Amino acid sequence: MTRRCVAYDQITLPFPPDMVWKALTDFKAYPLWWPSTVTVHVLQATPEVVGSKIELEPRNGKRLSLQVAACVPQLSMHMAYVGGVYLGAGLWQLEAVAKGTQLSYAVDLEIRSRLVALISYVLDIPAVHSRLMRHIFDGLLQHLERQPALPTVHSAPRTSRHLASSPLPRVHAPANAAAGLPMS
């Protein structure tokens, strides 16, 4: 009984990609702008971004661990879900657009918890993930608005979808193999 969570969410932020990238890679600031329903523990924040590790603990949920497996500055950051309820991959992508930066996050996750897998038959786990991503995007927008030198462009609406086929490679690797994840 392998169950998956495959989702895609995006927002257009009225800020240039370098500002959005800086916020996304400032892991120590995540607790300032992530929703209060998720406790963020920064386990390691590396200057080169790759190798940075965070642990997320959703209220009334199960803990999960993520590690930055690869990145292209101001374009993409590949996240490896290496421990906890999920195993798989997440991908942040940034694209400069006329109104600022289009930011998206896609996940393809295997649900490792039997309880969560059973619940997924009656609860739309990708929809729950997308609801959380809307809160994360809102927090990021507010965080960016508090930064100096605000641009004057306006944001566009958010988009969420649950993908039948994944934009990410499926990852089936032990938790200690995060550094070798295929992320192309």
Explain what you see.
This protein is of the alpha+beta class. The chain has a single domain, classed as START domain (Alpha-D-Glucose-1,6-Bisphosphate, Chain A, domain 4). 22% of the residues lie in helices and 39% in strands. β2 (38-44) and β3 form a beta hairpin. The longest helix is centred in the last third of the chain and has 21 residues, at 125-145. It is globular, with a radius of gyration of 16 Å. The model is unreliable at 150-156 and 161-184 (pLDDT under 50). This is SRPBCC family protein. It comes from Uliginosibacterium sediminicola.
In short:
Pfam families: Polyketide_cyc2 (PF10604). The chain has helices at residues 17-25, 30-33, 114-119, 125-145, and strands at 3-13, 38-44, 53-58, 64-72, 76-84, 86-97, 100-111, 156-161.
